[in-house]
Amino acid sequence: MKIAVGLSGGVDSAVAAYLLKQSGNEIVGVFMQNWHDSTGTLHGDCEWEEDLSIAKMVARKLDIPFEFVDLSAEYRKRVVDYMFAEYERGRTPNPDVLCNREIKFDAFIKAVNRFGADKIATGHYARLDSFKSGNTETFRLLAGTDPNKDQSYFLCRLSQAQLSKALFPVGHLLKSEVRRIAAEQNLPNADRKDSQGICFVGKVDLPVFLQQKLSAKKGNTVEIMRDFYRKYQENIPDDDYKTLAAPFKYSPGDGKKIGTHDGAHFFTIGQRRGINVGGHADPLFVIATDIETNTLYAGEGQTHPGLFRKALFINPDEIHWIRKDLALSEGETVDYDVRIRYRQPLQKAKLAMQSEGLYIIFDKPQRGITPGQFAAWYFDGELTGSGVIS
Asked: From the candidates 55, 59, 99, 178, which is the catalytic residue?
């Protein structure tokens, strides 16, 4: 089998290429250049030129052909422009999830067709298996074996067609085992630190990065006190999904002004840094933003009630089933394990499909439910679907 391995310069993709070659496959290493602009990036972090140099070194060490593809135009159009649009709406996107769906497992697959590759492989910590029903093969996306590195969440928008072309050679390994293999094979990036920040962009000063398209705009920072929520403390019926999932709405008269900011669209729920208001015993956290009035709402302390919600809602057109055979019908309710961010421990919840969309009701209130982020649901270690939080 001929396999195109996306060599990123990191140790995970390097070991993936090594393992596939050892299994007797014909391998071609391919580096994707997806970003040129350094606006807002923190110097020295995840610079693509260094990544390219190391990827070439890995290919030479493994004695495999090396190719280069430039997908930067696609990345800007399909990932970065989406980021700007979501922040402008007051939502917080996850560009890594979109990068996988739109670039690594779409544009990249199309780009490597000219190399005659049957499949592509990446260094993601996730696993795949499949089963057949008649002539139809169904792929199952499973959590990676390493609980500290499981990256299945980032793949939550992939389709059956995309999974049919994918391989995840390190998904069954622990990170320590990957490092050990890399060291034993004297790979040039055996000790290289893992990349951080936005996929292919690196670590950024987010407000500076976003100001390429979004203007700074002075607005008020308003503190909401804990006792504000007393009027919401009445018991809400467990089957009143709409009320349970509704975020708190604040009016101009709620709370008190404690400062100013440079744009509510630069902030996200649960954020601590950047509020820049002192005089409190405990740190302030963003509990809500109002884009229309350009108001930032903050609350004091990690356990501020404004940070917690029992449920969330997903619009019908933003629900995605990897396993369409498991899609819920209207009126159906099923228990699942759910996470609303990468590395969050799985949370017990039930999914309830209603005519207006999908509700996820958690056993315990969740901190920092954020519009624009992805909720991914699992059953017995298999990621079966996801949705964009409204």
From this structure: 99
